[in-house]
Each structure stands twice: as C-alpha cells, then as structure tokens.
Give the backbone structure.
Amino acid sequence: MTLHNRGQRPRALLLLPTTTYRAADFLAAAERLGVEVVAASEKPNVMAERHPEGLVTLDFRRPEEAARRVAELHASNPIHALIPVDDETAVVAAAIGAALGLKHNSVEAARAARDKSVLVELLRRAGLRAPWFRVCSLDEPVESAAAAVRYPCVLKPLFLSGSRGVIRADDPAAFAAAWGRVAAILRAPEVSARGGAAAEKILVEDYIPGTEFALEGLLSAGQLQVLAIFDKPDPLEGPFFEETLYVTPSRHPSSVQAELASEVAAAARALGLAEGPIHAELRYNSQGAWILELAARSIGGLCSRALRFGTGLRLEDLILRHALDLEPRFAERESRAAGVMMIPIPARGILRSVHGTDAACAVAGVEEVTITARLDNPVVPLPEGSSYLGFIFARAGTAEQVEVALRKAHAALRFDIEQP
C-alpha cells in the first residue's frame, strides 16, 4: 500500500551515528519531501526527553534488541521508511526492516557487506574475480603470518571503511611494520568496542594493480540502477590508500564502465543485497573488473553533494523516494561533469588555522569549500586517521575541467598544523 493510500505524512527512521557527516543532508532531503524524521543514534541526545517520538537511542551493536525497540515505537507511530546512512548501521537497519516489514536487505547480506573477509569469500564462490586472501589472528606470531602470505599484499581490518588501516606490504619486513600499525588501530578502545571479535583479526589479500573507480547505485528488488561512476585520477598504489579526487562522468570507455556495472550487479547478487543504496570500490586491469568493497550504504562523508539528478534532485532525495516508493525512484545524473576532493591531512598534530579558502572558492568551477576539521583539535592522517580536513566541490562542462578546478583550489589552501 502506497503512502498516497495511507493519507498520512510519511515518517522515516534515519540511523545516524554521532560521528556521521551525513545527518544534515538527509534531514534536508526529508524536509524537501515533507517527511517526518525519527533520528536514531547510539548515544542519547540532549533533546531526547523533549522529543521522545523524534529522537531515539539504539545500540547499533545489538540488532535484534534495536529491532524490538523500534517495533514498539512503530506500533503507536508507524514508520514508513528506514535509512541506514553508513556501515555501522547497515546490519541493524536490516534487522529493523525485517521486524517492521519495510524495504530492507537481509541481515546475512548486510553482515556479508560489512565483513571484508566474507565479501571476498562470497565473490570467489560466485566465480567473480577476487584476490587470494588469508584471515590472520592478532594472537598469531607476525613472523609466521608474514611467511604464509604472498607479496605484494594488502593488510586491512575486516570492518573499517575509508581506507583506514589499509596498508600495502611488498616483503616480510614491510609486512611486520604494517601488522604493528593495523594491530594498534584495532586495539584502540573505540575501534575494538565497535568491531568486537572482528577487531581481533587482520585480513591479508593479494595486491590488485589497476585503475580505481567508485560506483554509486540503487538496488530495487535486486536490480541495479547505476547512478554514477567516479574516476579516481590519482594513482592509489600504496603503501597507504588515501582517496582524494572523485570525478564523474568517467572518462574511460563505455565498455569498461559497462563491465564495472555488471561486476557490481553480480557482486550484489552474490552477497544477497536487494534493496537500497550501494557504494562500490573497484579496480580495473587487463583481467577485467575487481570488487574491492561493496557497502550497503551510499557514498561517505559529504561526497554525495557532488551528485545531482533530474530536476535538481540530490542523492538523499533519491534514497528517501526509493524507500518510500515515491516517484521518481530513479533518475539520470545531470549532464554537467562534477567532482569532489577529500582534503587529505598532511601531518599529525593540532589544526591551528586554515588559509586560502576565499582563493579556493574563487577558482572557476568550484562551488563549495567546506572545512570539516575543527580548529584547535587533533588531526590524524591515514592509515591511523578516519577523517579528512574537508571537501572541495566543483562542476564544469567536462571532467577534465572539474579535475583542474579541484587541484587548483586545493593548491590555494594552507593548513597550519602544530606538530607534537
């Protein structure tokens, strides 16, 4: 039954971790659509007592318990749509969706997308390209682990995103150094609490050479609608894999783009993903397309602001419309090229000042420069860090012009970081 038949204002449950960048853009989309929002976070909101029906605290690490809590709310104030905004909330969203009978992925599929070792195993079972891999325990002697893998390889946590803790090693000495850094990340209290048993393991994979891409899509009853394919113009060869530039439309041949889309669709089927946004990271080489990551959520950070569709629709508009069965559930991306630069952190320290934002904003094609890092607070680069200094957005007639604008704007910025 559609919302038009219900004759009521739709309500959407947004699962918003306190660390997410995505809250403002999803809340703005809900306001544009006239959707009432119930915001759920893992920590109590100071306004929760005044707004008990609109602000909910859920333990994202306990999906079944969270589903029971939301079902109680749903009984008196029905919820019509459910939106997980990042990796941390995908599994709990699947459990809630099943309990409420809303559009959802299965808990098993969401967990498969969340765990990188399960992802690669399911890809291999489905006959898709996937690297050789080995899951190592932190209790294992590093020397034996280094002797049991192939080089070059990549070490990575099972559950972290944004290239955090992802390090390339070309020999046993580099492996041991990378192992120590990844282990330190996993043993940090906030990481180990989030990861549970997964924080006690390291995934080691063959390094896959090639050109890297990102694909943004929406699944409906298992069918993939490609919303955008982003080129990543900077070489990502390690030892760390800090992403910077995303530019769309892709400048690569249509045959390559079609293979990327086909591989993502096949990977979604292999995992059992069927509904909602997906974000895929891929590499392409002489053997074809390789899935590096397939997440049951939309693109991270503020990067979605680079995407516009149809008559000015944003990515969050499409995600909400899809969840609510409102038209248009899918739309073509605008004709202009667009892109985003995730501003990298050059050094660990305390961010004291930012200079050059006016000059960066004045660059032809640049639409927005947003500094998200807070002054007088610590900043930590990858692989230990989990955030960026900010984001630069640009639009122009061609992808080449967008890339030039983003690089020129970034060159105009200067960050004073007081190092320890």
Q: What stands out?
A: Confidence is low (pLDDT under 50) at residues 1-6, 46-51. The two ends are 60 Å apart (CA to CA).
